[in-house]
Write a structure and sequence with these properties.
This protein has 787 residues and is an all-beta fold. 1% of the residues lie in helices and 54% in strands. It contains 1 helix and 58 strands. The strands form 14 sheets. Strands 48-47-58-57-56-55 form a 6-stranded antiparallel beta sheet, with no helix packed on it.
């Protein structure tokens, strides 16, 4: 088999990590997000338990596949339909080639794939090509990554092939279904992951010259057509060296993608005889993530030689690597399993094992090569296990979430699966564990595929799809097959939802509960139980706002420029609103909305008369609510019989104003300047038309004993046509006057003005008599006013 370190051939030390090299391409499949559609529990197998071989698979739980030469699998993946894909290489002179096999769920080769379930792919007769990783696209196409030699230079390159579902090369990818990239002078691809957008990230190692012992992490990202993604790194590729003392050699053996698009690469880093497990986190564009470790990198050393072969992400974002550790370089020192868990910032997770680290038995020569996270968070690790007879077998260990061995699995947490090397591991949706490794015989090596029983995840149903209105509680009803399972609901905006909207689940831990959302749109609703999730949808309809005009009240009399206030409520508390007013006189305007108070305010100058006023509030999702009031606009009126100012002041008597209506009389009034009888004043507003009528009258008047006036009155009227005033004077000192305006001078006493109309600023005053005396006295008789 080929070690990626053969890129440099820098000493026998690297041979001590042969096992880790054989399994560099393992893809760890975390199954915490399994869906309801494929949750069916496996048939009960009487007397068998988790960790036992699955007798329903192959022969006694095992399948062996021969490609006709020295064959070695390196990675496996489970299709959504339950079929199993295994990739590696076949050494069939003169060329080593990619080897791909697909199996049915019972372990038989899938005859609909390639030739009898098998496909081999060379890369132009270079003599050297091997697959290290496999991924399944959502459309069922299979992407395989590995390495190939570029003739005649002998340089190694990243090599990718994409297959259609029948095993034929996908001609729409790269050149005839294949793509190669040399990173640096020579490079090996060891791991691969497919992003949600379909882009493909490959990780491995790169050297600046063939034969150089300088080796770096190397990554490349490809677009869906197999071309390099220029938005990643430098034109699609990047290399990373570690801080001293780890500046000599670094090779990425595993890769994982975070939900936020960040990329985790793990492997081995070192200088000279000291090597550590190294982890790097990159942002989505390939730059180092400074929030992780030291400048984006972190290393772990337990012994003198350490390395990571596989990596997995927990649902909580913590990172687990598995690999090996060699405590010293003594001849009797043996490799041990190594597990390390990191917090999201790259620091060791002290709640796992001892300070974040778990080490396998010290008396056995062992190394891990694969990892998978079960639905319940337990950790399944595959690797080589040395038996009591010193044979090297395929083995599994299952750990609890704190790093302790799960004694309910196999024997004390360990399962020995029989002869084989460097297993890759994947979990089926039903909880069974699939392991692919190499089984050797004299002069030959074959794919071996083993399936173990696992813990069946619960069946989860979120129900739905659901529908309701924003702001209203929508009932959710789910079901979980395991009555002891813990469960929770999550609701996340999916489409058509405004930023800032939120949904509140009344009791997220109850199977039957309600959810209330602040905006309309489509939401993804997920019920999760013990790591198993079932999604459904919630369609929330918009709810129109409810509007009430709080001022003025319906039927109110108003005057002129009047503020209108409307209160509104909207079940969609995340909605934004606008409002308009229609004032019933052909005019309309846009109001001012105060979202926090839920108010709309407008101001309008109303003309005299009735008005049907409507206020309409619209939300940003098209919901419309309105309210209307009937208002009558009237001009305020006033009137009085007598008022005097000057040396002798007489207040307005009798005096009235409206609205509301008033009417007053004064039979007689005697002052030092005037004596008068028959005074009256009235003011009335017609509640149906808004017409205001103000009037005043006086019978007989004697001013300063020398001015005698009889029979005076004035009337002011406001209608939709405007303001009008009129007055009448009977006689002044026996002279008939009538309705026309004018004045009479009384020599040495006063000037008398009659039927006087004064207008301005939307107001009108009508005086029947106004007298200005030479002593500075000003006397007004029978006066009305509007406005």
């Amino acid at each position: 088999m080929r070690s990626p370190w053969s890129i440099n051939d820098f000493g026998d030390v690297m041979n001590w990590i042969r096992r880790i090299a054989l399994g560099l391409g393992v893809i760890a499949i975390a199954v915490g997000g399994m869906s309801h559609a494929s949750n069916a529990a496996p048939p009960a197998v009487a007397g068998l338990h988790a960790g036992d071989l699955d007798p329903t698979f192959g022969t006694g739980g095992r399948v062996t596949t021969d490609f006709g030469a020295l064959d070695a699998p390196t990675a496996t993946a489970i299709q959504p339909d339950g079929k199993i894909v295994v990739v590696g290489d076949t050494d069939n002179p003169p060329d080593d080639s990619f080897a791909v096999a697909r199996y049915n769920a019972d372990g038989s080769l899938d005859s609909s794939f390639g030739s009898g379930g098998k496909v081999t792919t060379d890369f132009g007769g270079t003599g050297f090509a091997f697959a290290s990783a496999v991924g399944i696209q959502p459309d069922g196409r299979i992407v395989v990554a590995g390495s190939s030699r570029i003739a005649p230079s002998g340089a190694m390159s990243f090599a990718l092939a994409r297959y259609d579902t029948d095993g034929s090369l996908d001609a729409s990818f790269g050149a005839g279904g294949k793509a190669t990239t040399v990173v640096g002078a020579t490079s090996f691809a060891n791991a691969m992951a497919i992003q949600p957008d379909g882009k493909i990230v490959v990780a491995g190692s790169s050297s600046p010259a063939i034969g150089s012992i300088q080796v770096s992490f190397a990554l490349a990202r490809y677009d869906t057509d197999g071309s390099l993604d220029a938005s990643f790194g430098a034109d699609g590729t990047l290399t990373t060296t570690f801080l001293p003392p780890f500046t000599g050699q670094a090779s990425a053996h595993a890769i994982a993608l975070q939900p936020d698009g960040k990329i985790i690469a793990a492997g081995e880093v070192g200088a000279g005889e000291g090597h550590s497990a190294g982890v790097v986190r990159y942002t989505s564009n390939g730059s180092l993530d400074a929030s992780f470790g030291t400048g984006g990198t972190t290393t772990t050393s337990v012994g003198v030689l350490n390395g990571a072969a596989a990596v997995a992400l927990q649902p909580d974002g913590k990172i687990i690597i598995v690999g090996f550790t060699l405590k010293n370089l003594d001849r009797d020192s043996l490799d041990q399993w190594l597990l390390v868990r990191y917090d999201t910032d790259g620091s060791p997770d002290s709640s796992f094992g001892s300070g974040g680290t778990v080490i396998g038995p010290a008396n056995l020569d062992e190394a891990t090569s694969g990892i998978a996270i079960q639905h319940d968070g337990k950790i399944v690790v595959a690797g080589n296990i040395t038996t009591a007879s010193l044979a090297t077998d395929i083995g599994l260990r299952r750990y609890n979430t704190d790093g302790s061995l799960d004694t309910s699995f196999g024997t004390g947490g360990t399962v020995v699966g029989g002869a084989g090397f460097d297993p890759a591991v994947a979990l089926q949706a039903d909880g069974r564990i699939v392991v692919a490794g190499e089984v050797l015989s004299v002069g030959n090596g074959d794919f071996t595929l083993i399936r173990f029983l696992g813990d069946a995840p619960p069946t989860v149903s979120a129900g739905g799809p659901y529908s309701g209105a924003e702001g209203a509680a929508v009932a959710l009803s789910g079901a979980v097959s395991d009555p002891g399972a813990t469960h929770s609901w999550t609701v996340v905006a999916q489409s058509g939802v405004d930023a800032g909207a939120a949904c509140t689940v009344a009791d997220p831990a109850a199977l039957s509960t309600t959810v209330t959302c602040t905006d309309d749109g489509v939401y993804a609703v997920t019920l999760t139980a013990t790591g198993v999730s079932d999604p459904t949808t919630l369609t929330v309809d918009n709810a129109a706002p409810t509007v009430t005009i709080t001022s003025p009240a319906d039927g109110a009399l108003i005057s002129g420029s009047t503020p209108i206030t409307a209160q509104f409520t909207d079940p969609g508390s995340n909605d934004a609103h606008t409002c308009t007013g229609d004032f019933g006189d052909g005019a309309s305007s846009t109001g001012t909305v105060a979202e926090s108070a839920g108010t709309c305010t407008l101001t309008h100058a109303f003309t005299t008369g009735p008005h049907d006023v409507a206020v309409t509030v619209r939300d940003d999702d098209g919901g419309v609510g309105s309210a209307a009031v009937h208002l009558v606009s009237a001009v305020p009126g006033a009137a009085f019989g007598l008022r005097a100012t000057g040396p002798v002041a007489v207040p307005a008597t009798p005096q009235v104003s409206c609205p509301p209506d008033q009417a007053k009389t004064t039979a007689a009034l005697h002052t030092p300047v005037v004596s008068i009888t028959g005074l009256s004043a009235s003011c009335h507003v017609d509640p149906g038309t808004g017409v205001t009528t103000a009037s005043a009258t006086a019978g007989t008047i004697a001013v300063l004993g020398v001015i005698h006036i009889a029979g005076i009155d004035s009337t002011c009227t406001s209608t939709s046509s405007g303001l009008t005033g009129s007055s009448h004077v009977g006689t002044i000192n026996g002279r008939p006057i009538g309705t026309g305006p004018g004045s009479i001078g009384i020599p040495g006493v006063a000037q008398v003005f009659f039927n006087q109309t004064v207008t301005g600023n939307g107001q009108l005053t009508q005086n029947a008599i106004r007298i200005h005396t030479l002593l500075g006295e000003d006397i007004i008789l029978a006066s009305c006013h509007l406005g």
